[in-house]
Amino acid sequence: MEQPGGRGDEPFAQGRPTAFDPPNTQRTAHEDDTQEQAGERRHEPQFRSRRWPPDGERHGHKSRDPGERGPDRRVSTEPFGSRETGKAASDYDVSLPLHLSVLTPDAVRAALARDSRLLVPVGTCEQHGPHLPLGCDTLIVERLADDLSADFSLLRAPTIAYGVNTVTKRPYPGNAAVRRKTLHRWMNDLLGSWEQCGVDAFIILTAHGHDPHQEALSTLRTRRARIFTVDIFALDFTDYLEDPGGPTHGGELDTSLMLHLAPELVRMNLAQDYPLTERQVASYRRGAAGSVPALSPGSVGKPTLASAEKGARLYKMIRDRIATRVLGAVAA
């Protein structure tokens, strides 16, 4: 399972994102921003696949009791030390997500000694139609990062809340994007800093399939650490959706997940279906830089088919698939 020049991580493809399911190998060839760093950082295998309250019970998923073992049979730890017991940072009992931003340096050092992997959620600030919040992509990967952090006692980085947005024909209030080069360089700087602190593997979670966004994340470089970019929308949802062939921008998939994770933020009375022709749908496939049609409400597809029940099934499938095919395959 060794890859030339890196630490073995087959079956992950080297040099391009790889989906959970059979991948489309097309991708754009713009790599000007990565070539300039080639002599400094080594390219490692990639695996392709938003800020959530650390209190998991707010949305109905229970945190484990202190000391309860997770799926990987390691004892969970708590991100905050117990003032009453006076425990040292290295003695933390972890049952909640291990948010890097609320831990002390000693607590981070202790956590990395147990498991040197780091979850990095990357979202967007982008409209998904009149019925969904701008942080739709961000909220989904934040919750996922929190749950996986708690399940596996993994450190979880602060959310990167901006990405390379899908092109729109007209402006939408609140939209905020960065360029591909900007996201790429920014992430390289962050990963380089965390690698110096002892992180050996990065699990990047994103829920935004726009090709330039994926390209920025799938061409990151480190000196030694492995990088796995997980696009959660790269899964095969055929058995979970009524319109599985439709695009995922504010459609049945996104809306169902949000109805499950944050129903109070979804305004289903404003949801509007906007079916696309086969040619238009093709523009949203991997390797294409499609744009939201000017006459659409901002979303595409059929959000009116969404339900919280579908969202619960979809979320469980996504979470379980990452736990087994990514975290289970990427040893600490």
Textual characterization of the structure:
By secondary structure, the protein is an alpha/beta fold. It has a domain at 32-235 and 318-327: 3-Layer(aba) Sandwich (Rossmann fold), CATH 3.40.50. The protein is built from 8 helices and 7 strands, in the order αβαβαββαβαβααβα. It has helices at 32-35, 105-114, 136-152, 180-196, 211-218, 252-261, 278-282, 308-327; strands spanning 98-99, 117-122, 155-156, 167-168, 201-206, 226-231, 291-292. The strands form 2 sheets. A 5-stranded parallel sheet has the order 1-3-2-5-6, sandwiched between helices. A two-stranded parallel ribbon has the order 4-7. Strand 2, helix 3 (136-152) and strand 3 form a beta-alpha-beta unit. It starts with 31 loop residues before the first helix and ends in a 5-residue tail after the last helix. The model is unreliable at 1-19 and 21-92 (pLDDT under 50).
Concise structural overview:
By secondary structure, this protein is an alpha/beta fold. It is 27% helix and 8% strand.
List the topology elements.
Elements: H1 32-35, E1 98-99, H2 105-114, E2 117-122, H3 136-152, E3 155-156, E4 167-168, H4 180-196, E5 201-206, H5 211-218, E6 226-231, H6 252-261, H7 278-282, E7 291-292, H8 308-327
Helix pairs in contact: 3-6, 3-8, 4-5, 6-8
